[in-house]
């Protein structure tokens, strides 16, 4: 880290959503220059990606991605597996496919209420050690929302805490749920958050916690974030208690940049930020570890199991389309990612084709056709 602190952040690492402000003639000149991506030999080969359509709207939106990828001749092909949330575990052949391909695209998997069936989403994250969940919540030009200038990245620890499902019945009528927080996992999620901010020219990282009450568990998480923050002096570091965080999000969300959270808080914060920025059907996301990555809709509250939307074939595929653009960058195909992102944002900006959650009435297929018209 010593070498890193000696150099300023490279402007060329600004993400597309961060590069719109402060345009001077100098910046316009450099922004207008073509950027040459120099691949290594063989990187143009087709890359296999494991595809899990999932439940509810999953098959609709994953099919949308398949159509768009085919239309723009993206250098990927899908190995499709049927997995459903009521299964007791992820089939072995699916895990082997992800282990081999290292990248997976999936629709939502329902988690049944009550005992007997554990969450397959949690199982995938644990078995593959996908310790970092990332959700990008931002305003779309042309889509009015209550708040403007929202561009928040929520980075959530994905493997421990309340979502581990460590529960048991001590005696009839008394259930104990264990929240386990470790120094190892807290440090690595904090490092990932600061590394993300550094590489994407983000200026601030905010740690979300409840250490005033859970002094040992959340206290350990907070201590780890503080230690990592000292290694990145060019990035502002803040802390906010989770209840105050929710209030600040709905009143002044533009104050947040990158947020790093324990497992449960991250789910709540990401869905809240998504609602503020335009809705869960728009926000991309993914889960990543050292070796593997799964890309899926970033925030899924109330969307996966909407039977009426499925029946009418009016699910919003934007979130998964943008998640697949994240996947293309992960696979080192940046120009394809840019084409896809620009096409999606252009369709939303024009406003002629929007699904129900965006105030329109178009079908999934009609929106897909509009995106394909631009990527081609």
From TrEMBL:
SMART domains: Iso_dh (SM01329). Residues 48-371 form the Isopropylmalate dehydrogenase-like domain. Transmembrane segments: none annotated. Its main location: mitochondrion. GO terms for biological process: isocitrate metabolic process; tricarboxylic acid cycle. InterPro entries: Isocitrate_DH_NAD (IPR004434), IsoPropMal-DH-like_dom (IPR024084). GO terms for molecular function: isocitrate dehydrogenase (NAD+) activity; metal ion binding. Keywords: Magnesium, Manganese, Metal-binding, Mitochondrion, NAD, Oxidoreductase, Transit peptide, Tricarboxylic acid cycle. One of its GO terms (cellular component) is mitochondrion. Gene3D superfamilies: Isopropylmalate Dehydrogenase. It is found in: Mitochondrion. Belongs to the isocitrate and isopropylmalate dehydrogenases family. Performs an essential role in the oxidative function of the citric acid cycle. This is Isocitrate dehydrogenase [NAD] regulatory subunit 1, mitochondrial-like. The lineage of its organism: Eukaryota, Viridiplantae, Streptophyta, Embryophyta, Tracheophyta. The gene is LOC111483775.
């Amino acid at each position: 880290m010593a070498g890193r602190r000696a150099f300023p952040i490279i402007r060329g690492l600004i993400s597309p959503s961060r590069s719109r402000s402060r345009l001077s003639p100098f910046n316009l000149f450099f922004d207008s220059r073509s950027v040459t991506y120099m691949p290594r030999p063989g990187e143009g080969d087709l890359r296999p990606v494991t595809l899990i359509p999932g439940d509810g709207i999953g098959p609709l939106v994953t099919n949308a991605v398949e159509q768009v990828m085919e239309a723009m001749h993206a250098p990927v092909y899908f190995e499709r597996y049927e997995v459903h949330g009521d299964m007791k575990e992820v089939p072995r052949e699916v895990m082997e496919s992800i282990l081999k391909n290292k990248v997976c695209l999936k629709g939502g998997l329902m988690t049944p209420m009550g005992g007997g069936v554990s969450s397959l989403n949690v199982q995938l994250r644990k078995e593959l050690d996908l310790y970092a969940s990332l959700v990008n919540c931002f305003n779309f030009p042309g889509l009015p929302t209550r708040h403007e200038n929202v561009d928040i990245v929520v980075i959530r620890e994905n493997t421990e805490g309340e979502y581990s499902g460590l529960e048991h019945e001590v005696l009839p009528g008394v259930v104990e749920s264990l929240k386990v927080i470790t120094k190892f996992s807290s440090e690595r999620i904090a490092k990932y958050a600061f590394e993300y901010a550094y590489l994407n020219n983000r200026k601030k990282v905010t740690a979300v916690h409840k250490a005033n009450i859970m002094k040992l568990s959340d206290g350990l998480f907070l201590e780890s974030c503080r230690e990592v923050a000292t290694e990145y002096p060019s990035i502002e570091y803040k802390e906010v208690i989770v209840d105050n965080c929710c209030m600040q999000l709905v009143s002044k969300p533009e104050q947040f940049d990158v947020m790093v959270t324990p497992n449960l808080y991250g789910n709540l914060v990401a869905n809240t930020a998504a609602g503020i920025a335009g809705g869960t059907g728009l926000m991309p996301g993914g889960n990543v570890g050292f070796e593997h990555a799964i890309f899926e809709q970033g925030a899924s509250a109330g969307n996966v199991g909407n039977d009426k939307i499925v029946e009418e074939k009016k699910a919003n595929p934007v979130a998964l389309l943008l998640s697949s653009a994240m996947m293309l960058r992960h696979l080192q195909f940046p120009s394809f990612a840019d084409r896809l992102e620009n096409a999606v944002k252009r369709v939303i900006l024009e406003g002629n084709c929007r699904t129900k959650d965006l105030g329109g009435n178009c079908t999934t297929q009609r929106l897909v056709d509009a995106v394909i018209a631009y990527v081609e």
